[in-house]
Design goal:
alpha/beta, 5-stranded parallel β-sheet, 21 helices, 509 residues, 5-stranded antiparallel β-sheet
């Protein structure tokens, strides 16, 4: 394979995790999504002292944007390094956040069409006044059939096309839920790499998480005050997290009449933020006992619950996640849960051979291609101007500048008021040369439409619509073109990238 995997610069530091107490409660075994490697990996995770590297994501259509895959492969790469370093089982676990209620984000997928443009498919939108149903309860519906057909039309012809489409069709079915289809597809995709996919909405997971959610509500006031103080201490870092604290909102979500809703402290109990339904702590304790599926953590509490349930030493997140995870230390402290180390996932660009051929043809770097469109195209077209024309334009500008300078000196000596109109005449003359050059470039552009089209298609492949590739494009077309070995090759590149953080003498386990 001739793909290149180019990492992007890190916003957050990358340091090695340290060993911790390990082990998993066997009662959680059924919460891991079935796959061909699940039982063997679970047996390893259940060994005394076994640890995990975790990451996770809310559901996405056809597995969502590439960064979801980058997260999962980052967990594989780091777990392999740590297992070799510590001499004890370290398992990669992908936390499936099926409680998420953002249907708009979960319901679309994009890829590069045959003409180089960005193509998309989406499920029919949820009505604006519909309850915010969590994705594990939200059916895909018949709209997924049309979405699969659109994707099938966009998949490149190759030996891997049919297998890629069949993989998605096994999971993305009208009767399946948005989260269930995502869970099944991710578990099957990642099983050769030994990833355990953890369904956080499984009854076993909900039952295990419920006591921690109730504990967070019992301490809601203390947690809110501690987060407010911590946020003030963090200053700009907290302001850039995108998370509001200290406003009385609890860290727990409850499914009520308007769907998944935030609980807010109110007098001696809580009220849901949107539906304004009131619950005292005793009522919520009954819900936790009888219907724990209705409760879920918010983004700040979720990693704490994850660490309480799983023997994780590191959580791998994107830049936005790592910013808000900086707010979480007071939660771990008050809830007496050891904190896993937040680390950056691998972030980068998959550079295909067709893009490299364009870069080579035009003598460009990837960084130049990733820059906004316009200046590069103008520079490339201008470079095609005949050298005689460029030389003539440069000589003309130099002569105009020199001679008008002399003329301005003479005019000023005759009458100082003549200086300004003389300078204006010089500027107009120089602008005339620019107009001539612009017309030459415009005509060259029309003659070079084919080459500029190649450049535009290459840019769209690495920065679709001017956005990061990993935040727009989905995995399926890459799998259809290059096959499943793509995942192992990218994992190897990520493992090498993480390796630098683990240099030095081995740490005792």
């Amino acid at each position: 394979m001739t793909l290149r995997f180019v990492p992007t610069p890190l916003e957050h530091p990358l340091g090695p995790p340290v060993p911790a107490a390990g082990g998993l409660d066997p009662a959680l075994a059924e919460a891991f999504v079935p796959s061909s490697t699940r039982d063997a990996q679970l047996a390893r995770l259940l060994q005394p002292g076994a640890l995990a590297v975790t990451t996770g994501q809310q559901p996405g259509l056809f597995t969502g944007p590439l960064y979801t895959i980058h997260k999962a492969l980052s967990a594989v790469a780091l777990a392999r390094l740590l297992e070799r370093r510590w001499g004890r089982p370290v398992l990669p676990i992908f936390w499936l956040a099926g409680d998420d209620h953002d249907f708009a984000e979960a319901s679309s997928a994009s890829w590069i069409a045959a003409d180089g443009s960005v193509a998309s498919a989406a499920l029919p939108p949820r009505p604006p006044d519909a309850p915010l149903t969590p994705m594990y309860r939200q059916p895909l519906g018949e709209g997924v059939v049309a979405a699969l057909a659109a994707l099938a039309e966009g998949l490149p012809a190759s030996e891997f096309r049919d297998a890629t489409l069949a993989w998605l069709e096994r999971h993305y079915r009208p009767e399946a839920s948005v989260a269930g289809s995502f869970a099944g597809a991710m578990a099957e995709l990642l099983e050769p790499l030994g990833v355990l996919a953890f369904d956080s909405t499984h009854p076993a997971a909900k039952q295990a998480a419920a006591p921690h959610l109730v504990a967070a509500l019992r301490q809601a006031g203390e947690l809110d005050d501690a987060l407010d103080r911590w946020s003030e201490e963090q200053g700009a870092a907290a302001r850039n997290s995108g998370i509001t604290v200290g406003d009385g909102a609890a860290l727990v979500m409850l499914e009520a009449s308007l769907g998944r809703d935030r609980l807010v402290r109110d007098d001696s109990g809580f009220v849901t933020r949107r539906s304004r339904e009131r619950f005292d702590l005793a009522a919520i304790e009954r819900i936790a006992a009888d219907a724990p599926s209705r409760l879920s953590p918010n983004v700040l509490l979720r990693p704490v619950v994850e660490r309480a349930l799983l023997p994780t030493v590191a959580y791998l997140g994107g830049p936005g996640e790592l910013r808000y995870l900086e707010l979480t230390p007071p939660i771990y402290s008050l809830m007496r849960v050891p904190r896993q180390l937040p680390l950056p996932r691998w972030s980068g660009v998959i550079v295909e051979p067709r893009v490299d051929r364009v870069l080579e043809k035009f003598g460009l770097s990837l960084e130049e291609l990733l820059a906004p469109a316009g200046p590069l195209e103008a520079r490339l077209v201008r470079s095609q101007l005949p050298s005689d024309a460029l030389t003539s334009l440069e000589r003309l500008r130099t002569a105009l500048d020199t001679e008008y300078g002399l003329l301005e000196h003479v005019a000023t000596a005759i009458d100082p008021t003549l200086a300004r109109p003389t300078r204006s005449a010089r500027q107009q003359a120089l602008a005339g040369t620019q107009d001539v050059e612009k017309k030459l470039v415009q005509h060259l552009k029309r003659r070079q439409e084919t080459e500029l089209g190649q450049l535009a298609r290459a840019r769209n492949a690495v920065a679709p619509g001017g956005k990061p590739q990993e935040r727009v494009l989905t995995l399926a077309p890459f799998l259809a073109r290059y096959g499943p070995t793509l995942l192992e090759e990218l994992t190897g590149a990520i493992q090498a990238w993480y390796g630098g953080a683990l240099e030095g003498p081995p740490q005792p386990a």
